[in-house]
Amino acid sequence: MKLLNSQRFRASLALSAGLVAGCSAGAQNVGAPSPPGSTASHVQPQTSVSTIVGIKNNWIATISGSGSAQCWSISPGLPNVGGFGQLSGPVTLTYTPLCPSPGGLQIIYGPEGTSTIADCSFNINYTGSVFTYSVLQGSGTKCSVGPSPTTGYDEILTYAQIGPDATRLKR
Q1: Distances in whole angstroms, Cα of residue 133 to Cα of each of 4, 15, 36, 106, 145
Q2: Domain topology for 49-159
Q3: What percentage of the chain has pLDDT greater than the value 70?
């Protein structure tokens, strides 16, 4: 009888040790980081979107630009652009969709020191999936926006004047 109780005790002890080892091993994995190459994914909301524009000047004199808006950044900044069809380097316009004050970006270009009749307002908006571009003319301008035929730009914002003073603006 003592032999039977001793065997039961050993069997029970081995079973208990196995259960404790199994639980301990399982407990060690709780909260452990995912192994490299894990297929687990975390979807993060998109924090910013960008478009690359070029400023083209079809007038004879240098033009300068200004513009800023909450939720937007302009990098490296708005350049002055020489006349006779010159194209600026790439300008990156970045929008933050999660911004608490969404809205468009208005960039105004024209010759320095002139009246607003020679300015064009280029408007850039983000719809949630694409950028849209439009232009508001000054009374003496014929500016345009369009997809870029040049690699490295998404859109070209073109400044131009109209009328008899298209090649020369009186001050």
Answers
A1: 90, 73, 43, 10, 7
A2: Mutm (Fpg) Protein; Chain: A, domain 2 (2.60.270)
A3: 67
Please, is 130 exposed, middle or buried when counting C-beta atoms within 10 Å of its C-beta (0-12, 13-18, 19+)? Answer: exposed
pLDDT tens column, 65-102: 999 999 999 999 999 999 999 999 999 999 998 888 88
Which pair of tokens denotes residue 98? 């999660």
In angstroms, the Cα distances linking 152 to 37, 54, 86, 165 are: 34, 9, 16, 33
Q: What is the pLDDT of residues 9-50, one digit of tens each?
A: 444 444 444 434 444 444 444 444 444 444 444 445 568 999
Amino acid identity, position 106: Q
Rounded Cα distance, 11 and 28, in Å: 26
pTM for the whole structure: 0.69
Domain coordinates of the chain in residue numbers? 49-159
Considering Cα of 142, then 145, then 148, then 152, what sign does the dihedral take? positive
Task: For the chain, count helices (H), then strands (E).
Answer: 1, 10
Pairing mode of beta strands 105-111, 120-126: antiparallel
Structure tokens at 31: 């909260």
